[in-house]
Write a structure and sequence with these properties.
alpha/beta; Rossmann fold; globular; three-stranded antiparallel sheet
């Protein structure tokens, strides 16, 4: 008998406690995912969450789907195997800035370049939280942490920049305090056929509190972030009077409408589907104070996916190989028959 039950958020809520620190951004991310899943039209038994190690990687325990808690940095490899073995699954990888881009950095870039249809939610709090406050691959240079008492001397990764460099087909950025936007972007990530990277600017209330506040704070967010929507002009600001243009040197520039003859018609229009990654790359690496930080879906382009091409290769070989079963295999090549 066909199951006609319409899924709701409650179907994805676990009975047990969610053990993150009070005030952790993970709670709002979890709620947004639980709100998004009923709308992707995938049976609950075909949804799986995979994680590595870190605070974010406790996620599979906190959502009522199939889940797999893997080793540090290895979630991308596990998720790749699951999707390749069973392409109908909706596979979600939950990871952090350390789990994904330090010990898991190799797996991260190769997942992206292969373009396997996996949704990666990258909790970026710019610190190692579970191991109590060491600097991570995204910690700003000069930051004082438990493992950099004199300030970090390493250049941080920008997840958007890294995704574009690995030939990424989908990159988005969201803020943990905006559940509605998170839900919408998570649904878009699912719709995209290929590796979807969603960077989430997440707060670690214990070891890196307010790390994103200079751009996401209530009083400054309008002027220091820009929400990109496909087909709409790149406009921002509390007064909606600022925007982005390409100057004569083909670099992004912030302008003010009404100054120097600038009108809304002069502003760039966002094209998330443009195969050329150049503008997406520039948008993804914008940082405050020189630019607003871009949020929303920055890049979403079509390309072949690994698991589909793998299935095609398998079917082709099955149809054309002379070896159809184990008997054919055992009798192939140089066979010595004992009378």
């Amino acid at each position: 008998m066909e199951n006609t039950h319409k899924l709701t958020k409650k179907d994805f809520v676990v009975d047990g406690p969610v053990k993150w620190c009070a005030g952790c951004g993970g709670f709002s991310i979890l709620s947004a995912v639980q709100n998004a899943l009923p709308e992707i039209n995938v049976p609950i038994e075909d949804i799986v969450f995979v994680s590595g190690i870190g605070c974010s990687s406790r996620f599979p325990y906190y959502i009522e789907t199939y889940g797999f808690h893997g080793l540090h940095g290895r979630a991308a490899a596990l998720a790749s195997g699951m999707k390749s073995a069973n392409p109908k699954l909706s596979v979600w990888q939950i990871t952090g800035d350390g789990d994904a881009m330090a010990i898991g950095g190799n797996h991260f870039i190769h997942l992206i370049r292969r373009n396997i249809d996996i949704n990666v939610l990258l909790f970026n709090n710019k610190i190692y939280g579970l191991t109590k406050g060491q600097y991570s691959p995204t910690t700003p240079k000069g930051s004082v942490t438990k493992t950099s008492p004199h300030g970090t001397i390493e250049n941080p990764f920008n997840p958007g920049e890294l995704t574009m460099g690995a030939q990424g087909t989908f990159f988005a950025r969201v803020i943990d305090k905006e559940p509605k936007v998170m839900k919408e972007v998570f649904i878009e990530a699912h719709k995209h056929k290929g590796t979807s990277i969603v960077e989430i600017l997440q707060n670690c209330v214990i070891f890196n509190n307010d790390v994103h506040e200079q751009v996401t704070g209530k009083e400054v967010k309008d002027d220091r972030t820009i929400y990109l929507e496909h087909g709409k002009q790149m406009i921002f600001g509390k007064e909606r009077n600022k925007g982005l243009v390409l100057n004569k040197g083909y670099n992004l520039e912030v302008v003010t409408i009404g100054e120097n003859g600038i009108t809304e018609d002069d502003l760039l229009v966002h094209n998330a589907y443009d195969p050329n990654p150049n503008l997406h790359y520039m948008l993804g690496r914008m940082t405050y104070p020189d630019f607003p930080v871009a949020v929303g879906v920055i890049r979403s382009v079509k390309d072949t996916t690994y698991e589909v091409m793998l299935e095609e290769q398998v079917e082709h070989e099955k149809a054309n190989s002379k070896i159809k079963n184990m008997t054919d295999l055992l009798n192939s090549g140089n066979v010595h028959v004992i009378e």
